[in-house]
Design a protein that fits this description.
12 helices; 395 residues; Penicillin V Acylase, Chain A; six-stranded antiparallel beta sheet; binds zinc ion; alpha+beta
Length: 395
């Protein structure tokens, strides 16, 4: 795989998520992938107050944001009806509305950004909070029956990497229906550090890095203590407002979370912490003696297992975690951005790391990201890592 920044049109023809007609009509021999992404409405820059950035976001991605919220509300209702067949959309929205005061109180700037998106896109806040926090929201709605299985995260540091730096990242796996709405957003707030990251239309930060070298991503896990609270994207949006690594970690720990995720954070000196969370509990994990760590969708820390919906991980999650771990060990000592992307491109086994489907209801890898916070570098693909060129950006 070629991870350089410039791609010839021959290379661009392999970008399966882009509108090739637009690309070939530009008449340019070479262009940056960033330019291609801009033309394909995959890259946006917003600046100003949090409310203004939100408004710009909502206006720019109005249709996509509406579609994302509609898809996730329908999925939420479907899940709720698996537990209680006569459940109604009005009840789903009532639970959603109960989350809003937590955001207003705990993360007022992220709340302002959500309000801006709501205004810009013309989407009610209670619908937007489900569009943003779907995997948390279903945990609140149906508790341990949610079982959404997504994302493989990897980290390598110290002697495990060729350059001694920390490299960490993940596949971002989600229902294929969301594939058209994955975007890269650069934010330059009036107050607070600028950020760059991957998310979906209408949503706060999903995986990202700020100019202070704080980076954060996540995988989904399913605890039993879901409750109305702050959704995970708002928690990560808040962590990206911090300029010290310790403060960013404390932000995630202290969030009155709606449910659990595995969050991983990297810092400007190559620090790394993994946080397995439930709504009310936190367990810290870190790279092992080799400088490696892989996490998928089951809790690994013994201290937190009693809050897990299932104590044993699903075969899907265990297989991906084991394979990621194996590939990291095989590459140990020589790992860098390209090698980490190769891990995220792997197709071995019945439950491969790089997931493909055309079925809107099934999970696929819709993006892959490798971050190097010491270099303020975020390298990502939109679409599967195996089939799409990686783009490098800095916050
Ligand atoms: Zn693949």
């Amino acid at each position: 795989m070629d991870h350089t920044r410039l791609y010839s049109l021959d290379t661009i023809r392999h970008i399966d998520v882009l509108d090739l007609l637009q690309v070939s009509s530009c008449g340019s021999e070479n262009m940056t992938v960033q330019e291609v992404l801009e033309m394909d409405r995959r890259y946006y820059e917003f600046s100003g107050s949090y409310r203004e950035m939100g408004r710009q976001h909502g206006e720019a991605m109005r249709e996509g944001a509406k579609r994302m919220c509609d898809i996730r509300l329908e999925l939420s209702l479907k899940r709720a009806r698996q537990v209680q067949p006569d459940y109604q959309m009005a009840q789903v929205l009532e639970v959603a509305a109960a989350h809003l005061p937590f955001h207003e109180q705990w993360c007022p700037d992220s709340y302002q950004e959500l309000l801006g998106i709501s205004e810009g896109a013309g989407i009610a806040m209670k619908r937007l909070v489900v569009g943003n926090g779907y995997t948390d929201f279903v945990d609140v709605l149906v508790r341990e029956a949610s079982g959404v299985c997504e994302c493989t995260s990897i980290a390598a540091t110290g002697a495990a990497t060729a350059d001694g730096r920390l490299h960490l990242g993940q596949t971002w796996d989600m229902g294929f229906a969301a594939a058209d709405y994955v975007v890269c957003i650069k934010r330059q707030p009036d107050e607070g550090p600028s950020t760059v990251g991957i998310t979906t239309a209408g949503c706060l930060s999903l995986i990202g890095m700020n100019e202070a070298g704080i980076c954060i991503g996540n995988t989904n896990v399913t605890p039993t203590d879901g409750r109305p609270g702050v959704i995970y994207l708002a928690t990560m949006n808040e962590a990206l407002r911090r300029t010290s690594f310790d403060e960013a970690v404390a932000t995630v720990k202290q969030s009155p979370r709606a449910s659990g995720h595995y969050f991983y954070l990297g810092g400007p000196e190559g620090q790394m912490v993994g946080l397995e969370t439930t709504a009310t509990q936190v367990a810290e994990v870190a790279p092992d003696g080799l400088g490696l760590y892989a996490h998928t969708n089951h809790y690994q820390e013994r201290t937190i297992l009693q809050w897990a919906a299932r104590r044993e991980g699903s075969a899907n999650s265990v297989d991906r975690q084991g394979r990621a771990r194996q590939l990291l060990e095989e590459g140990c000592g020589e790992l860098g951005v390209a090698e980490m992307m190769e891990v995220l491109s792997d197709h071995a086994g019945d439950n491969p790391i790089c997931r493909h489907t055309q079925d809107p209801a099934s999970g696929a890898s819709l993006a892959a990201v490798v971050m190097t916070p010491e270099e303020r570098r975020i390298s990502f693909t939109i679409g599967n890592a195996c089939a799409n060129p990686a783009v490098d950006m800095s916050p």
